[in-house]
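ping. complex inputs:
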Amino acid sequence: MKNIIIFDTTLRDGEQAAGTTLNREEKLEIALQLEKLGVDVIEAGFPISSPGDYEAVKLIGSRIRESSVCALARANVKDIDRAWEAIKDANNPRIHVFISASSIQMAHQLHKSPEEVLELARTMVAHAARYTSNVEFSPMDATRADHGFIYSLVEAAIAAGATTVNIPDTVGYAMPDEFGGLVSSLFENVANIQKAVVSVHCHNDLGLAVANSLAAVKGGAGQVECTINGIGERAGNASLEEVVMAISTRQDLYDVNTGIHTEQIYRTSRLVSEITGFQVQPNKAIVGMNAFRHQSGIHQDGVIKMPKTYEIIDPQKVGVPSSSLVMGKLSGRHAFKERLAELGYNLGEEDFKHAFDAFKDLADKKKQVTDRDIESLIADEKRIYAGAYHLEKLQVTCGDGIPTAAVMLNCPDGELRGDAALGSGPIDAVYKAINRIVKVPNSLTEFTVKSITEGLDAIGEVLIRIESQGISYTGRGADTDIITASAKAYMNALNRLLAEGNNG
Ligand SMILES: [Zn+2]
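pong. complex structure:
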């Protein structure tokens, strides 16, 4: 069976759209998880775009062993040299060269004639091919370009050494049958097409990115470019989990495979959402909170009798933690450790101690501790102990009077410092009290709350964004108490801001 190469661009197209700067360590954390997920190629960034991006791509290239690490470059010598500089130590580096190919982009943005574009594609792919045999070429805006011109560009790029040729639907304009047709037409109109893998890169402006990618697979594409949770420019990219699960669920129609370890999908989705601050919509296919939830009585009845009556995918297959009761107040260290191992966490002694304390704390407040709770708690612990400031104590009074908050923080110098403030509401008061201690000017730009599990004693998760000097940082916090979760999220964002400052 043919293997479809999964090319993930969460760290390039996705990060570009996040409106938030991920630091090197955060990008590396995502890259390591993508490797665990089994993606074939990780597009780690666009090295010429900023020194920070260059450093992140370099770090990822030095740490990733299994997946190929790819760097993006425009069709010019400077971009390509910088891209190569960033990835040259990677195990299997790839340079991705792109150039505008539609009349509208060539005339109004690039100010070059088709002949000049063709010549640049030829010479710049050849330049990249001097560094590595793993070169990808993309004619940008291919779906709005003249097809004859795309064939010439692709043929020239392959002749110059491109081993992957990518057809991007840059503006999300194509329809599935049309796009599938364009891809299959390459095999009839490009003489040397067999020497390269045909790839596709679809955007979701009309909600068709996944459908277009699947049509392309039918048309003979051997690589699909996608992102976790479908994040990316504007309406986003084709979502990795949807493409992969469609292929896997409909093996009767797609005679192809992917190397994705599907049981890592849910964890990867959560990590990307946490780090980028992009919430996953509840009804999102595969990874949304409701993706495996049955509300209709008839459906519930069916699923209880036989899951397949209304479930086309077993939730465990994509790693969704079960929300059935697993642990409670009486569960001991050993049982907790075992459960963590089953969920895929192997914590060191110190981390385990913190996690177990937090679990006991939670079990006191909440009768039933589910896998989802544990997962959220571990993610939270990791963020709390990774930071410079820790929230020690928090007290809030609100109601009819004046909302007041008192906080006690464990500071980087080892000192405990406390302060108090009034606010327009309890969360405002908490943030003001924290500001009096941490003293970093910033503004809150986004604040969202959601519950991880059901019931009044559910764990609430708060995701926030703060902005300082034009750069935005995300923070996440989880707790059965929403105000405490908000305080944790704020500490998390502040710690990120401070860490960035220390990086220079
Ligand atoms: Zn894109």
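The radius of gyration is 25 Å.
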